[in-house]
Design goal:
single chain; globular; alpha+beta; YacF-like; 2 domains; 4-stranded antiparallel beta sheet; about 20% strand; 3-stranded antiparallel beta sheet
């Protein structure tokens, strides 16, 4: 799950940077693309997604005879998961393997780990690319992103289903601390905590299969975290 969330954050960042039209936007878009490849190469991301899609399909199929379920919507969702499953199966190798075969991208990736390693005199071809019109650079990034799109699309859908699996409920952290016994026989995969805009605090979460603990931390003027005093209300969702 942590890998899923890291990949999701990188995908969101890549999409936002690609939409920009400055050369610095697209420089950091490529850096983010390389980070995605690094994260994806450390785990069998494709295999994990295939397993989780199969699990979701099994859960959803159990609602096929439930009269309280919109059967048309259910069939549409199952068809969508089948599409993601097929797209993942069609991938060859790990995330971004095709990009690793590009000499142009490999030369940039090798220099990005060096401080200021992508200067004009180090990578003249890269700076020629950066000097192209923004739409040309965006089109190239779009093409490179197609190699990771099966993973990105499947991951987004699975995380969306997971987040929608539980309704938030209100709890109180007494003197900044909250604990909850997790239900036996139910696998809680993701905990969501609602933090109001401008709250000035962040949650520190720790958990095992039996217990969830949340410590509410205040952010001081030096951006250091201090334990919160007093009771704090917040929303929490345990997603399975």
């Amino acid at each position: 799950m942590r890998t899923y969330l890291r990949v999701e954050r990188l995908i969101d960042r890549l999409s936002a940077l690609k939409a920009g039209d400055g050369e610095h936007d697209h420089h950091f878009a490529l850096q983010t693309l390389f980070e995605l490849i690094d994260v994806g190469s450390r785990a069998d991301l494709r295999g994990d997604l295939l397993k989780d899609i199969d699990k979701q399909k099994t859960v959803l199929a159990s609602y096929a005879e439930n009269p309280n379920i919109d059967q048309s919507a259910l069939r549409g969702l199952l068809t969508e998961l089948d599409h993601h499953h097929a797209a993942l199966n069609a991938m060859v190798g790990k995330l971004g393997q095709g990009l690793a075969e590009s000499d142009f991208l490999s030369s940039i990736r090798g220099r990005m780990s060096i401080p200021a390693g992508t200067c004009e005199f180090d990578l003249p071809a890269y700076h020629h690319w950066l000097a192209q019109p923004a739409r040309a650079r965006q089109s190239a990034i779009d093409e490179w992103m197609t190699t990771i799109s099966p993973v990105a699309n499947a991951l987004k859908r699975l995380l969306g289903l997971l987040r929608d699996s539980a309704a938030p409920h209100s709890v109180v952290a007494k003197d900044g601390n909250y604990q909850q016994n997790l239900p036996q026989g139910r696998n809680v995969s993701l905990v969501r905590i609602g933090v109001p805009d401008g709250a000035g605090w962040v949650p520190e979460i720790s958990a095992n299969r039996l217990l969830l603990s949340v410590r509410v931390m205040r952010v001081d003027a030096d951006h250091k975290l201090q334990g919160m005093k007093g009771d704090v209300d917040f929303l929490i969702s345990n997603c399975s």
